Write the structure tokens for this entry.
Amino acid sequence: MTVEILDVVTRSLLILATGFLFGIIFVAYLRVKSRKLLLISTGFFIFFVQYIATIPELYYNFTVDENLHLVLHLIALVFILVGILKD
């Protein structure tokens, strides 16, 4: 099984980007302690954990169902949306 360099680079950049966004939002939450930032950081954390969990797909015969990816995206986006709309 060969791993394309584009797959490795893309997943690495997704991990770095979501980790960076999660870090910024979580540090802001720790500073302000508002429920709005907690919900947004939870959404980014779900994205971050999902991208970390998909790394074994590159090297092992381990696949996550596409429906699970969609459900995780939906849950994360709902947390982010509720956090944005929270006043």
Summary: The helical segments are 5-32, 35-53, 56-59, 66-85. The chain has one domain: 5-85. Residues 5-85 form one domain. The two ends are 50 Å apart (CA to CA).
